[in-house]
Amino acid sequence: MKTIYKKLFILILLLPFSILAQSTLGGTVLDKLSGQPIPGVNVNIEGNKSGVSTDFDGKYQLSNVKKGDKIVFSYIGYANVTAIFTDQKTLNVSLVEDANQLNEVVVQVGYGTVKKKDATGAVTVLSTKDFNKGANVTAENLLNGRVAGVTVNTSGAPGSGSQIRIRGGSSLFASNDPLIVIDGLPIENNSDKNFGSTSILASINPSTIESMTVLKDASATAIYGSRASNGVIIITTKKGGKTLAVDYNFQYGSGNLVKTIDVFDANSFKAIIAQRRPDDVPKLGNVNTNWQKEIYRRTDYVDNNISLRGNLFNIIPSRITVGNTYQEGLRLTNVFNRNTVGLALNPSFLEDHLKIKLNANYSNENNRFADGVEGSALRFDPTQPVYKSGSIYGGFFEYYNNANGKLISQTPRNPVAQLLQTFDEGKNNRFFGNLELDYKFHFLPALRAVVNAGFDQADGERAKTASAFAASSGTNNDIPFGTNEFSRSVRKNKLLDAYLTYNTSFDKLVFDITAGYSYQKWDSFNFITGNTNDPNLPTGITGFPQKTIDFDRVNVGFFGRTNLNFNDKYLLTLSFRRDGSSRFDKDNRWANFPATAFAWKIKDDLLPNSTAVSDLKIRLGYGITGQQEIGNNNDYLQQYNVGSGSSQYYFGTVALPIAVSARQSSNLKWEETTTYNAGIDFGLYDNRITGSVEVFYKDSKDLLADVATADGSNFSNRSWQNIGSFTTKGIEFSVSTDVIKTKDLNWNLNFNVTAFERKITELSSDFIRVGENLAGTGTQGQVHQVGYAPNSFLLYKQLYDNTGKPIENGYADLNNDNVINSSDKYIYKNPDPKATFGLASTLNYKNLDFSFNFRASVGNRVFNAVNASRAQYNLLTTGGTVGNIPTSVLETGFNTTSNVVLSDLFVENASFLRLDNITLGYTFPKWLEGKASLRLFAGVQNVFVISDYSGLDPEIANNGIDNTIYPRQRSILGGVNVKF
To answer: CA-CA distance, 298 to 294, in Å (whole number)?
Structure first.
């Protein structure tokens, strides 16, 4: 009995303490719409100043929680959520975007950040929840169609690079690629010199990207000065987290060929040969081979990524991501295989006065490249087989003399054999990253010092081999000698940025000032053997192997910027950068790039009582940016090259090479683009509808071009010069709306449209012919000419008979001199679209998500060079045998290629509507008894294209010339996302 009383007494004593007992609460905070975790969410106990923030995975742990406490979850851009603690161990919360708070979102700009509501320039930011779904192997496809004024054109090759254009670009002959900045490190787009890699962005794992910010007008880009004429894309990678979390993402895809060029099948080909070339009937075979389908295959795509986040040593928020991407191309042997490792450390010390960000990324690309054999596949005789028993060329059918094994000249090579017998393999190891130190002074917290050091090195090599039994390899006297080539490259990019930032306020005036210095250096090395199997390969000091150490290239910049905000209504941004480049001589080396922008939040002044208009801001911007990407580092210097084997002097019987003067561009200076921008940002109905309208005008002057020089004025007939100017004017509109927004059902639509017009206003000559020769020397079909858009088509005006059929060699005598010659060519259309469109839809119903992405282009023209240079009856013979041609010849009846190749008949309207992706997913939020979430999804990539264009694909990147392309595959996708 005494024992019972003692226990009861102890229980009574402990009862108050149990009532006051405190617990630890944990959980995950997700975005209601996308299901993605939200880092940085504030988790507080109501009435208590202390709290925690969610880590990168949206996870949190809150201590000292008592039963009945109200837990408040708050984050910029989202509505607050309050939940009552009832002794549960886990509390998972989903936040819903609050359009009224979206303006508080912080966006990246050059050397700093700014709140979206206070942005004065044309800036668009996309985060993980905004990215395109599907098989996005390279980073740029995450934003394709999502940003007004931005186009991304990617070929069908696996892991291939893309043609990215922001507002059409700003140059004629220099680069039109935007500047890419990864975690503060500007990278260079030099894939053609980076051996073994498919593209400059192929080494970046898209799953590690947190956001992409697009800077479009000069007021936003001028802080980057000399490289910002074509816009800037800032890529920010994901950071470390404080609590342990694991994410695993898997995706599989199976792809197939969508469409082929219409050429004659075996039976039709036999009939047309019998009709038009009866003497060649004995050359025909007796099978039916679709050569286009033979060179392609069904493809596999596998993407695996695992990410581990946690607090290393309890003080260093960390992330490590390991990924592998395997993608097969449609061409039989084409493979892209990428392995990546990414590390992020972002600790804070000295009571958050010192913040350190370390990003280190390693990628290993292993590629098997494939020759472009589409032209051979179109031409090869469909009555011949792929394989032939007894063939000395690896068992493949080839045209050769059975008596001596020599190949028959003027015959095509078996395209399937060319793919299977050629081993073109490359590998590229790339390491890039940065270390940023951000120190907030103890004695003056408003002042920060930031130092950012970046490094990027790519080591690549490529080896191409083929045996002497490969008819497609090099030949000597019609006897193959095989291929054995090797090349290696090393590229290095080093960066040091240092700047001070001061933020303060005086009554109603809030301002910040940034001033800094930037130093960036590039160096490179190339080694090329040439084909060592070639018996005529030049060797020695003037031949192969070739070793090239490029001149180091250096950029030095001094920059400054200030942002002023008066009464949270009037906003002014001023920036200035002075850049120096080693590409120019001392008199032209330095250039100044100023910019300014003004914004006025006019809603309260003009519409204070409006319930329909919730936000309204007007923006004006002006700035100058530069261009120096011309491919040659030191053309302003007088240089001498060792002569070739034909440039030698004999001293007795010994031939010695001589030094030959290289061309010189001594007066070359910066290409500069002046941009004017005006915009309106608006929000309607409590910001349920938000959007913007932009108008812009760009004037590019002192255009850099590699063009002809006057005889005797240089050591070459061409050199880089400043030759003229051109303008771009346009308008952009974008809108985002929550069509439906309820507790269980959310539907968001995002739409954008862009229209622009480019026009050349000055050139050093009347016109400059550009573009590839379409059917032999002298058949260029494009031109740069004053008063017209760049790359306009320069062609003959086709005449037609009474039935509407084109007349062969029937062209209009436009100058009325009774002679049809090159003087009768005229400018007919250009490749630029009249307008481009993007539409993205995201629908969430409870745990179900459904999304799709449309893109469209209207008014763009494509010159169908496949038909122009191949669809003529004279090409039924290759010279040595018979050859196939497109069936479009039946419509035109054309006989001779040279008579018709430059006809405006072949310029087609290539307007299109494309459904890029459609994805359906379902999330199990409490999988494994609440220890993890699981999302299953399926989708289709490249769903359909609607267009009147007769070629394979209306989306052409080659300045509007379609002379066979690598087709885009259609893929069926499926995958899983697991979060622990």
So the answer is: 11
